Amino acid sequence: MISRIEQDHSRFREIIRGKVRQNLRKYMARGDIIAPQGKGSVTIPMPQINIPRFTFGDNSGGGVGQGEGQPGDPVDGAQQPGQGKGKAGEGEGDKALEIEVSLDELAEILGEELGLPRIQPKGVHALETRKDRYVGLRSTGPESLRSFKATYKRALRRQIAMGTYDPRRPVIVPIREDRRYRSWRTDPRPHSNAVIIYMMDVSGSMGDEQKEIVRIESFWIDTWLRSQYKGLQSRYIIHDATARLVEREVFFRTRESGGTMISSAYKLCNELIDAEFDPEHWNVYAFHFSDGDNWSVDDTSACVRLLRDVLLPRVNLFGYGQVESPYGSGQFIKDLRGAFAKNELLITSEIKGREEIMDSIREFLRRGR
């Protein structure tokens, strides 16, 4: 039978889910929900929820008093008009209640709110190894697992307790009850069978606001895909006129200047897949973010060839997100849409501001690939 406190907790969690779902677009736009790297939960500020508490009445309805004095006389020690500090106000101050929500629960809310289908992996999507660990001893088992040391100590203690042990003739003869065998436990160890490769233009036209949009969107993409796979790895590529593989922290903080050659990132992405992520055994997701500027028409043509002939046949999904910038021309997304209008493996999205992050994620993930 479910206890009353469990029922109350369950109702409270439902309230939390409702509040998160109701304010999801706002949280995503502000970046309120970002989990620290390696942490399995997030903390969500919820000023909309008031904690129940007892309060005293303000006696506004009047009452009866006793003692000396006439109506209108000031109470001893009370402040007279004009002696107070500050300005009077009405109402209570803002109170923010912070609620911890697991990433799995957050992913479920995201999927429900955006109507995302479950991912249909390709290749070996349930790759799993098993590791045997010896965790203790037991009194039965195969002779191949008999522990000589444990059996000897058990027999020695028994003979000493029975008074049959002779130090001058230390012969230890184990009996059946003395035998001890190693016991084991089999632990499943899932392989990381999916990888996200993020690519981003870090030329001077991609400012701090554009990078923050990419950071927020990549967190939500990570959250959803991690809920679909037992293991997930991420790789980060930055590029201007050249591309290089970097750590996550560098990915979101680097700002450079110079020209932009998008093909350099696509070439490095393909080399990375060749070296580490065989598409026969990995589900590969690639996402590229830029402001739409490219060095030349020739480089854009090279990008189209790389996508059509090399990358798209090897990935589950290739997403291109174009972040609006006052300095970017926005031409690249038009070229991709013209070249891959009927290819469902390549999805493009225009992100004009933080408030459109939610719509962009829906565009990328709604096909369940």
Percent helix range: 25-40%
- Overall structural class, as computed from helix and strand content, comes to alpha/beta
- CATH homologous superfamily label of the largest domain: von Willebrand factor, type A domain
In the CATH hierarchy, the third-tier topology of the largest domain is known as Rossmann fold
Give the terminus-to-terminus CA distance.
42 Å
Q: What's the CATH architecture of the largest domain?
A: 3-Layer(aba) Sandwich
CATH class (first level) name of the largest domain: Alpha Beta
Q: Report the strand count.
A: 10
Average pLDDT for all residues? 80
Parts with pLDDT < 50 across at least 5 consecutive residues: none
Number of domain units? 3
What portion of the residues fall into strands of 2 or more residues? 15-25%
Based on Cα principal axes, name the global outline. flat
Largest beta sheet: what is the strand line-up? 7-6-5-8-9-10
- Return Rg in Å: 33 Å
Q: Count of helical segments?
A: 10
Largest sheet: 6 strands, mixed
Pattern of helices and strands: HHEEHEHEEHEEHHEHEHEH
TL;DR?
By secondary structure, the chain is α/β, with parallel strands linked by helices.
Protein architecture, described:
Helix 3 (103-114) packs across helix 5, helix 5 (208-228) crosses helix 10 and helix 7 packs parallel to helix 8 (297-311). The chain has helices spanning 4-22, 24-30, 103-114, 148-162, 208-228, 248-253, 262-276, 297-311, 331-339, 357-365, and strands spanning 41-46, 97-102, 128-138, 181-190, 194-201, 233-239, 243-246, 283-290, 317-323, 346-351. The longest helix has 21 residues, at 208-228. The chain has three domains: 1-50 and 97-115, no CATH class; 128-188, no CATH class; 194-365, Rossmann fold (3-Layer(aba) Sandwich), CATH 3.40.50. It is built from ten helices and ten strands. The protein is flat and about 95 Å long. With 369 residues, the protein is α/β, with parallel strands linked by helices. Strand 6 and strand 7 (243-246) form a beta hairpin. The model has no long low-confidence stretch (mean pLDDT 80). 35% of the residues lie in helices and 20% in strands. The strands form three sheets. It has a six-stranded mixed β-sheet, sandwiched between helices.
